[in-house]
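agent> fetching stored inputs for the MV4 docking request
agent> found them:
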Amino acid sequence: MFEKILIANRGEIALRIIRTCREMGIKTVAVYSKADQESLHVRFADEAVCIGPAASSESYLKMSNIMAAVEITNADAVHPGYGFLAENAEFAEVCTQYGVKFIGPSAAMIRSMGDKITAKETMIKAGVPVVPGSDGLLKSLEHGMKVANEIGYPVMIKATAGGGGKGMRIVWNDEEFGPAWDSAKQEAGASFGNDGLYAEKFIEEPRHIEIQIAGDQFGSVCHLSERECSIQRRHQKLVEESPSPFLTKKLRKEMGEAAIKAGECIKYEGVGTVEFLVDKYKKFYFMEMNTRIQVEHTVTEEVIDFDLIKEQIKIAAGIKISGKNYIPQMHAIECRINAEDPYNDFRPCPGTISSFHSSKGHGVRVDTHVYAGYTVPPYYDSMIAKVICRAQTREECINKMSRALDEFIVEGIKTTVPFHQKLMQDPDFRSGKFNTGFMNTFDLGEE
Ligand code: MV4
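agent> prediction call returned; pasting tokens
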């Protein structure tokens, strides 16, 4: 087992990782930017190293500074958390070169899933259903239009280096194809330094449902059930839950088996997530694979009573997984609390928290790095807390969340709490009738 893990991250996930390390008897090293000197991850870690100024490009994203911190503290493993360098193949490579274990899959694995065309081809080989579309890269506008007519409109143009909706366009007919092609190519090139595009049939009103998997160094892969992530805004998830109110027993089994096939085929090492689009006819299609721990891993932890960070560390240390698949035993919902004004287009609202009271009580978990007096810096992600509730049924869970949100008090900055409170009372949300388009029509009303 590792003796000392350096956590190359900040915020709630850094704290979350420190907690598990302490429980496992592993020493921890925090790294922090000048803007994070007062952060709890710095206080709770055994050691802390400043790695640069506030800008993440000069601190949390700066590999040379992080590796210097690894050297001076003599850490034997690095946990990347989510975001920052978590899916940076070069960082995984650099860790290996330094003889320190990157807690996650190999650089080659990260790279192959980071390129969406390669990922899709890999899934086809594994026998996982994918959205019908172009056979690899589109070579030209003319080629793209020919393929679009073969697939049949509407089609979606996507960037092979994509993610987060960048370089993605819906096209309804031949007239729209040219302009969409040009702007997608331009955006992809500017965002990723790779302007490769491909095309797929556009799936209307899909749900985003993902399967958590875990694979060990001996080729064994299991799934840890699904998460429903359809409540999103501009490709940012707002609420996640497990189980999905949309899945039948049969579909859960099929999607779980598909996710395992995906993991087995690539000999996946670590915890990961296979994302699917599920259409209104309950047909599912591979979308992307995330090769990291995700923000919403907590809902899975709650429904199957399992520590996913501990599992990550054990897998990285070469310990075998049980190999057993898990089916949710309860219902869990997570609300992401962001320092944003939901009445003002979710505009970021950094600043000092003057008073803070966390929700408590049976079945309530709050993962956060903030406290009264803490200043939310403007440089990073605006998430300040995750409120996770768990109960026997979905209805009880929503009622518990409603109660927990009423108790969650943050003063001094605006947060997304009022949005979540309204959502918990929404008839369509309560009845489970929603898809990824939900936020396009959701009306928060007056402040
Ligand atoms: C799609 C799609 C419909 N059809 N692909 C959005 C982000 C990127 N990872 C993939 N995305 C989508 N791909 C086809 N063929 C709709 C989306 C999509 C979406 C997916 C999941 C969650 C929210 C979304 C919001 C808008 C579009």
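agent> quick read of the result: The first strand starts at residue 4 and ends at 7.
agent> awaiting further instructions
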